[in-house]
Structure formats: C-alpha cells, structure tokens
Amino acid sequence: MMELCEDTGNIYETVAIIGKRANQISVEMKNDLSKKLQEFASYNDNLEEVFENREQIEISRYYEKLPKPTLIAAQEYEEGKVYFRNPAKEKEKLQ
C-alpha cells in the first residue's frame, strides 16, 4: 500500500489520480461499447415486439468480462504509465 504513494507522498492524492484515470478508461470503454452496439441496432417502431439480438448480447457479455476500469488504472499507475502533475506543488516550488 505504501508503495503506491511513493510518487506522490500522499495516499489520498494517489487514490484521486487512479480514480481520475479510471473515469477516463470508463468513458473510453463506454464509447467503444456504444459504437459497437449501434452497428447492430435495429430501428423498429413496434414497441410490442422485443427482438433479441445475439450480436448485441455477445458484445455486452464481452465487455462485462473485461477488467474493471479501476483495476486497469491501478495497474497502469503501478507500471508508471500514468502521467500526472500537481499544479499546487509546482507553484510551491516556484516560490
């Protein structure tokens, strides 16, 4: 746990960084899923009939099985793949 806060010196700042990166990953995954589901969308005006689209179901299952964005973000942070900066600390160094 303490290894995570070596770069920032503050565990709460580290958690905030990982959380923000997880949100970015989540948005990317959601956009990808939406694009893929749009390819198979059926535009029917008949509300009485519910169509079961196998392709959409398979795509949804695939995305459900992917690692969660928080886990991906934490892994990226541990591997040093996440760029972050703290403007407040930079300002303190300049003064």
UniProtKB/TrEMBL annotation:
GO biological process: DNA-templated transcription
Keyword Zinc-finger among record annotations: no
Record flagged with keyword Transcription: yes
Keywords per UniProt: DNA-directed RNA polymerase, Nucleotidyltransferase, Transcription, Transferase
EC number: 2.7.7.6
Enzyme class: transferase
GO molecular function, one term: DNA binding
Recorded GO CC terms: DNA-directed RNA polymerase complex
InterPro entries named among the record's database cross-references: Pol_omega/Rpo6/RPB6 (IPR006110), RPB6/omega-like_sf (IPR036161)
Protein name in the entry: RNA polymerase Rpb6
